[in-house]
Design brief:
The chain is mostly beta strands. It contains one helix and three strands; from the N terminus they run αβββ. It is elongated and about 50 Å long.
């Protein structure tokens, strides 16, 4: 539920992503690590924004966000996230 009447009230599509970042997961522990695997010191997860745009379909504005998250698990892979959001009946 939201008190907003339009998705644009969240700001830009990238700002919208900040408000729903819990969808990407959160680190629940503190880690002491060296800089390894492309991660900075004391970091074990990272998210990269690949694209963010606003589109209108059938008179409704949607924000579409494309990002990838990685963890320092030795896999060198990641998870691709496609997030689409709108506000309907605020």
């Amino acid at each position: 539920p939201t008190d907003k009447t339009s998705i644009t009230q969240y700001g830009t599509p990238a700002e919208f992503l900040s408000s729903v970042s819990f969808l990407l997961g959160r680190t629940t522990q503190t880690f002491i690590t060296g800089s390894e695997g492309g991660f900075g010191a004391n970091r074990v997860a990272a998210a990269s924004l690949l694209g963010a745009e606003s589109v209108t379909k059938k008179g409704k504005t949607y924000y579409e966000v494309d990002c990838v998250t990685r963890t320092a698990d030795g896999n060198e892979g990641g998870r691709h996230h496609l997030i689409s959001g709108t506000v309907s009946n605020g």
